[in-house]
Design a protein that fits this description.
alpha+beta; Aminopeptidase; globular
Amino acid sequence: MSTAEALLTPDIRRMEESDLDVVMEVERESFSTPWSRGTFRGLMRRSDASLWVAEVSHCVVGYAVVWYLFQQAELGNLAVAPGWRRRGLGKRLLDWALEKARERGTERIFLEVRISNRAAQRLYERYGFVQVGLRRRYYREPVEDARVMSLDLGQLFRGASQGGAG
């Protein structure tokens, strides 16, 4: 794979109802206990949630979901289709989600990640996410603990303006 193929710049836009067939496929391929179509639909109707899709050549290849509560947010889901992974799309979606959260006045963002998902943890750690807790037996199929991670968005964006990640 060439460098040009490896790192793609997707178009990122709000998720629409018409995206749900592909989103559900990516969801099932990415998670052992996938969200339902109803969960996505419900979140799409909420003013305190934002759902985005990443497209390459008009094909949905990933998505991110964030919900907000006052100055805090939670990255509820971020997934890239298996055939499109390791090309920078997860990073692009995370960049987008963090910037949109900052624009909404979010000061701190949280997430949960499987203990075994080292690839995702490395991505989050590169941005400055730190572990702030552990949820025992949080995941099912298989049963596994979740690392609760948090990021101070002010610190991230101050660091980015000084040459840091993001």
